[in-house]
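Milestone M4 deliverable, item 7.
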Amino acid sequence: MILLFLLTAIGFVMLSYGAVFLVDGASSLAKRLKVSQIAIGLTIVAFGTSAPELIVNVVASFKGSAEIAFGNVLGSNIFNILIVLGVAGLIHSISVKEATAKKEIPFLLIGTFLIFGFVNNFGFPGANLSRWDGFFIIIILIVFYFFILKDTWQDQHTEEIHSYKLLKSLFLILIGMFGLFFGAQLVVNNAIEIALRFNVSEKFIGLTVVAFGTSLPELITSVVAVKKKHFDMAIGNIVGSNLFNLLLVLGVSSVISPMKYDLALNIDFIVLIFITIFLLITMFIGKKYQLEKQQAIIFLIIYGAYFIYLYFRG
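Output delivered:
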């Protein structure tokens, strides 16, 4: 048991340094290529921090563990909004560009509703995610990036960003992703083993332990980004990661192996829809286009209540 905790701690260290390298490298690359922070957050950083979810789900798909796969994505997305943005918002109020509030977040909400419809077969018998569903939702993600990024790609930078040489920027990004990926693997694998020692269900593990472990890159990366006042990267990371999880991770997973959906997870899907709507609303109440500290506290309280519900549901 001591070894399990030690390996988990090493994973946290790798995640911490990986996040710093990824944010610094991505910020420098964005500045050198005159690419906006939100564009980098929605693409490079989002993909890098979503890599653990993708790998976990690919492995789960090959093993036929649909509950882990769906639970991982739902749990991660809920964690990203409530905990990652909650913690980041406590550190500093997060300013959001108008385009993010009016385009990216609404599209995330639409994507969440869409996947909810797919897994429930739009009310018809047979709750699953087929290979054709997987191909279709991956295409939707590609279309989203085409229309969204063409508007945000060349936005001007307002933050002071250190500019490294191109090769060093790419090296930092790769090292950062390496640290995030393998750090997450250490945390997830050992955390699952610890959880199993306490005899908790696979569904609970997917929604909590696995989701928490695979979302650690988003948490640490967003906290580092906020501390460096790269707010666009922080919010872009979460919106992009959640979209990747819903459309790319579930899409690839179902293409590998069609996944049967447990209707009991509809409650968790509804929670995800509700908090995504709440995130959108926060952009237009109080200070416009800003996630304020009091709103961040509400996010954390909601997650606390949700976790207690999961614990008693088992």
